[in-house]
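Changelog-adjacent note: as of this version, every example in the card shows the full chain rather than a window. The one below runs 97 residues end to end.
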Amino acid sequence: MAVIQIVRFRTNSNVEETAFRTLNERFQREVAPTLPGLVRREATVSEDGEWVLVLRYTDMESAHKAGRSDTSDISQAFMQMIDMSSMSASFYTIISE
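Full-length structure tokens:
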């Protein structure tokens, strides 16, 4: 069954918004298409700076593996810009569409 992952976070206080948005776009173009099982990735940001990623995977196994399987330089730079104390990730099985 398909799975939605919701990831919420804020960037580190020393990260410039433009730099993070640029890196996010690189991730979207260069990394996301290579992740097995990833069907769609949407990145959003609120007015107060909270980011929410909505990722759709073909199945739960792919969803859990995706974060661990990518060790690219882009992914490492992306993770270094995130305030890890603000990060949360949840997985939801799609039951109707």
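Structural remarks: The chain has one domain: 3-93.
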